[in-house]
Amino acid sequence: MGDSATITAPQALDKPAAPTKPYKEPRIPFSRVIKQHWLLYVMLLPAVVLLALFHYYPLWGIGIAFVNFSPAKGLLDSPWVGLGNFQRFFGSRNAINILRNTIVIAVGKIVLGQASAVVFALVLNEVRSRVFKRGVQTITTLPNFLSWVIIGGIMVTFLSTTGPINTTLQAIGAKAIRFLGDASVFPWTLIVSETWKGFGFGAIIYLAALTSINPELYEAATVDGANRWQRLVNITIPGIAPIIALMACLNLGSILNAGFEQVLVLYNPVVYKTGDIIDTFVYRVGLIETDYSIGTAVGLFRSFIGFFLIMLSYWLADRFANYRIF
Amino acid sequence: MAMVEERGVADRIIDVILYTVLALLALACLLPFLNVIAISLSGFTAVSSKSVWFWPISFNVDNYGYILADDVFIRSFGISVMRVLVGVSLSLLVMVVTAYPLSRDNIYMPGRTVFKALMLFGMMFGGGLIPYFLSLSNLGLLNKFAVLVIPNALNIFNTILIINFFRGIPPELYESAVLDGANHLQVLFRIFLPISTPVLATVTLFSSVGHWNSWFDGLIYLKDSSQWPLQSYLYTRVTTRMLQWNVSGSADRAGATFQQATPEGLQAAMIIIATIPIILVYPALQRYFVTGLTLGAVKQ
């Protein structure tokens, strides 16, 4: 749901498959395991409760997507409509718009975000002054750790028709751009601001990979007369290609994740046509207008596709980059 | 010789270009912040005539004075601090206690694999916003502070990070303790935790930032805005201003209650105050970026 990239630590990389000790099918009776290691089960108890309450219990609500839900009646006494809610949504003119907006914005962010992080890391890697490098990295990484509320507040000020950018544009004779109020510009505002916020942090993973390239390769290449460009193309880029491929695989999982919090902060009715995404639609129609059934149906559709996309991305990452999360 | 010399010059030109590009990028990240800082420190007339760019005009700290005298702001700031303290401690405790049994692969523990699979599935699939909201409502958590810290106490991704770190702890370290009769809790708290600083610091820092930055949960799960954390409060201020910005230029309600204050100036001051805690922990965060990335490598 939320923008998890900003709150969780980055993925652990270069991880060999889990070192599972191949214990032979043990013949230890369960009662003995309990007697010896009962504490392990006690320790798991809080997680069992939290998982049950906040991850599995809410699944009852999936039923809401198939009824005409009224909170007063409850799920079981609300009239069954089968796939009616899905038909209602997909039959509406909104549906195409919302799906298209979600995918366009998410794909734009993935492509521009990854490309800018890679290029930034490569450029930074060419710089020899450590102080300069550190300074640039410190400044460019900071926005990643601020909420979209803060960044949104800054953008509203900075991008307003009287703000620095538009004043400059007008001073050089160009027309002012309504970054947040023009439907044809708005998706770009989202894509570029997300990239602006994230490229510094996104580069860290590539910078870490760059430091692990064997320096002897560069020395040997220099001796052989390779110039800077040739070293970049023949050593540096192949050196981080596996990480680039891995991140591309993992990014595949977020094709339906267009950035709920960002859009919610920045959008307004003027730009719904190009800026409304699945998540904001679910929030607005489902929670604000309390059309619970439509909200749940659309949300379920998104969860379902999202789940398969994530499975696919993990499968690809495992297949081509030996990446496992456990 | 001449060739080498020439290459040196070309290299230097490339360097100049690269340094310039990087400096411009850093500037692009910095300028929006400078703009907001300058506005927050400028006088009423300068801000209302939209003439402040990157340097304060008629410097004063009135905006900060107004904000710090605003009860709603102070209360929401306190709630944010509380949610970071309570939320992160609770979450850390739950996660290490969960990670321990799941990381001890050499102990035969029926059910472990199933539980891990349930965790993974739970992380990847959810019922969506509406069922979640209604479930919290059924559980009686709406409109209580607890809704900000309990439902997210078990962060599955961070738990996996801790599990992977625990797995890398050499068995010799705890085997002797086990022989001395230490139980699992003692092994966890006396042997595992003291040597797990990198992963614990990483998780603590990232979840502190996460709690500080959260606003959507406060916004929808707490009806009474007096219970809101800072960022939820700030959200309503930002969006109100944007609506006006699209419709007209009228001053908003809070702006009207403070004479000689502009909504822009007040909001800028709020943004800066909400950013300061992040700046304070930022140096520590920076130390653990790469730790977070390379945690897996510790395992070998």
Structure in words:
The complex is a heterodimer of chains A (326) and B (300). With 326 residues, chain A is mainly alpha-helical. Chain A contains 13 helices and no strands. Chain A has helices spanning 30-56, 84-91, 93-126, 130-141, 148-158, 164-171, 186-211, 215-223, 228-251, 260-266, 272-275, 278-288, 292-321. Mean pLDDT of chain A is 89; it is low at 1-16. Chain B is mainly alpha-helical and 300 residues long. Chain B folds into two domains: 1-60, no CATH class; 61-300, MetI-like (MetI-like fold, Orthogonal Bundle), CATH 1.10.3720. Chain B is built from 14 helices and no strands. In chain B, helix 12 packs across helix 14. Chain B is globular, with a radius of gyration of 26 Å.
Characteristic key phrases:
heterodimer; A: 326 residues; mainly alpha; MetI-like fold; B: 300 residues; 2 domains; 14 helices; disordered N terminus; disordered C terminus
Strand content of chain A: under 5%
Task: Count the E strands of chain A.
Answer: 0
**CATH hierarchy, class of chain A:** Mainly Alpha
Task: Tell me the domain tally of chain B.
Answer: 2
Level-2 CATH architecture of the largest domain in chain B: Orthogonal Bundle
SSE string of chain A = HHHHHHHHHHHHH
Structural class of chain A: mainly alpha
Estimate the strand proportion of chain B. Answer: under 5%
Unreliable stretches of chain B, pLDDT < 50, 5 or more residues?
A: 1-5, 245-257, 296-300
